[in-house]
Design brief:
Elements: E1 44-49, E2 55-58, H1 59-68, E3 72-77, E4 84-88, H2 90-107, E5 113-118, H3 124-139, E6 143-149, H4 158-171, E7 176-185, E8 188-195, H5 200-204, H6 210-235
Parallel strand pairs: 1-4, 5-6
Antiparallel strand pairs: 1-2, 3-4, 6-8, 7-8
Length: 240
């Protein structure tokens, strides 16, 4: 029994039209956020893009324009009347979008919260030790969550714990600002501080370099010489 020959006619493209010499990728259109080329269902579209005459075109004419430029027709605003389509390199457009999202994700700084624990009757030595650590955390850009833990009947000293946390925040006012005032949650009373966005303080405290020191001394010496010369000139009597 002879087998019937399979249909060998043209098939519909499975995504953006491939460039000359570029192999199409099957199933690529399923993950595309935009309708492209033959997958645009509108009968006419508003065409925008570089090197094209903007206006409203029948979809077939818009496809021919994109094909002539060896680019894709991409539906960027499907809800408009008529839908807005742009002529561009779709693969390059997707690559740039992913690159931009990756850069934005890398720039998004993760919020780090450092915790510091006190007792309701913390002595000055322990307090100053933890205060020094909190200053370091805030200077490196981390938030500080300080809390007083009340064990057993020490909950009776909650007012003393609140005073301790407010003193802690006051001692750190040059390095951080209070984001959350003392709040009692179960056996813990906590306060949250976030770092100040003033990097100028570090620059003001930067030690003077040897070159800058020499320049400053030379400038002061020159000013002294000029002042002495001016004073001597005033004392010298003028000849009539």
């Amino acid at each position: 029994m002879e087998k019937k020959p399979q249909f060998g006619g043209p098939r519909r493209p499975m995504g953006p039209r491939p460039r000359p010499g570029q192999r199409p990728v099957r199933g690529e259109h399923r993950n595309d956020p935009h309708a492209t080329n033959e997958y645009i269902r509108a009968k006419e579209v508003r065409l925008v893009g570089d090197n094209v005459e903007q206006g409203i075109y029948p979809i077939q004419q818009a496809l021919k324009i994109a094909e002539k430029l060896e680019l894709d027709l991409v539906e960027i605003s499907p809800t408009a009347e008529p839908p807005v389509c742009r002529v561009l390199d779709y693969q390059k457009f997707l690559y740039q979008q992913k690159k931009r999202q990756k850069e934005q994700k890398a720039k998004a700084a993760k919020v780090v919260v450092k915790e510091i624990r006190f007792g309701p009757q913390t002595d000055d030595h322990d307090y100053n030790f933890k205060l020094k650590h909190a200053i370091g955390f805030l200077q490196e850009g981390s938030k500080v969550k300080a809390y007083v833990f009340f064990r057993g009947r020490s909950i009776l000293f909650k007012e003393q714990g609140e005073v301790l946390l407010l003193r802690f925040a006051n001692d750190l006012e040059e390095y951080g600002k209070v984001e959350m005032m003392p709040v009692l949650e179960g056996k813990r009373m906590s306060i949250m501080l976030s770092p100040l966005k003033a990097a100028s303080k570090k620059e003001e405290k930067r030690p003077e370099s040897r070159k800058e020191q020499k320049a400053r001394e030379a400038s002061e010496k020159a000013k002294g010489v000029n002042a002495a010369s001016a004073e001597k000139a005033e004392e010298t009597p003028s000849e009539d």
